[in-house]
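pls read this stuff:
=====
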Amino acid sequence: MIQKVIDPARLLVVTHDSAFLRSLSSIGESNDWQCERANNVWEAIERVLSGVAPDLFLLDQRPGDAEGLHILRWLRRLRPALPVILIGHPDDADRKQEAIRIGARDYLVKPLDDRQLELAIGQNFFQRREDDENEITSDDVEPIDSDNFFIGISPVMRKLRAQAALLAEASMPVLILGESGSGKETTARLLHKLSVRSGFQFAKVNCAALPSDLLERELFGYQQNGTPGQTKPGKLELCAKGTILLNEITEMPIDLQAHLLQVLQTKRFLRPGTSTRIEVDVRVLASSTANMEHALSENRLREDLYYRLSAYTIHVPSLRERKEELRVLSRHFMHQLARHYGLSPRAFSPAILEAFQSYAWPGNLRELETFVKRYLMIGDRDPAFARSRTSLQEVKQDIALAAPQTLTPLVPMLTSPRSGPAGSDSLKSLVQSVKFEAEKHAIAEALEKTGWNRKGAARLLKVSYRTLLYKIEQYQMKPSDSALFPGANGLRSKGSRYRGDGRTD
């Protein structure tokens, strides 16, 4: 008998087989499982959506009934984390592979003995419990907003959390240093959340992404069309009583650094092109991946501004300095991304989790998230996973081989086609570039032929639906891109509009 747990499992079953229902009821009583029956699939879906979701859903299909796969697709979108077991008949056994691909946890074929059914339910139920425990239920995982969270499992991150809580009580500038992708913005948002300014706006300005004139406008505002009285406020004004993060502060032009220093000293500035003096009350946080000593010696950062910002400094540790968090981080990313894309989370094998510990993660959290997204979308069907391995070392090599060229630790195919290897003039990068363009062209052509019906395009390309969704996001494709490809006819469905996030409306 399956070991009992404190909270009984709730099973929802749809079946017209009285013998199967009696067997299930008997198994449920012996394991203290609560078995509920729905008369049909639509009633079951109503229960799933209206009340407390069951821990497991069993759908017993009639012979030749293909409706189960359609229902499974609905459930994957409505409740991605709900485990579903389909029960079929010998004549329909060929549907098993498709059911598992869509997201079924298991596909059982009648006739079933009680022990087989009991084990299948028990394994999937305990897997659900394990998944729930590995999600963001720990006190060490602190949500910051809908898209950001802070994990403080390792001693260095707990120390950082305590430091942030202390600095949040003041309104002084803070300099946040760390490697790219290590979580500097998350740390800044944590500071904002813990401070009395949390009820006001938080904004980020990337100093490395804008030329000098646009960066000046972004920060200080400007007079529109040269017309007096028509002004556009900058981020410093819009964040009144809030917090602004200046990312890559060493990339800010020196003359703008002087204006910023004036704001820190006097809490006012003159809007460019006007004589209007603006009073500002905003907390300034600055971040950088640069070596501060080098930035000062190379005159990329004013000394007076540096000393003004660095009175309080936070160093965000790299991911390799807190590898004990990898298991929780990877699983949290998996659940977060699965909810975003409406997919079932994938479990990481022990070999992959162990390989995580051996990898250096030069791209830090951003690289880990990219890997998890790729694994969610492609999983074991990726060539890097599909080939057989004889040892864990081969898994580690998969990660190590591709990492020097991309942000993705296993294969280059899931990173942006615009960010190729450093040696862009090499034959390898040229071949890779041609591959990306050919792939993008083929996807665009298939989407055009199907009027941007992505499921139809996936069938046409003979790839899975989730793989196509990822490719559309990878290449940042949208219906208007059809004009970029020769031979595109420009036809698309009038009834749907691609939103750019993998969905249509």
About this structure: The mean pLDDT is 75. The longest strand covers residues 283-288.
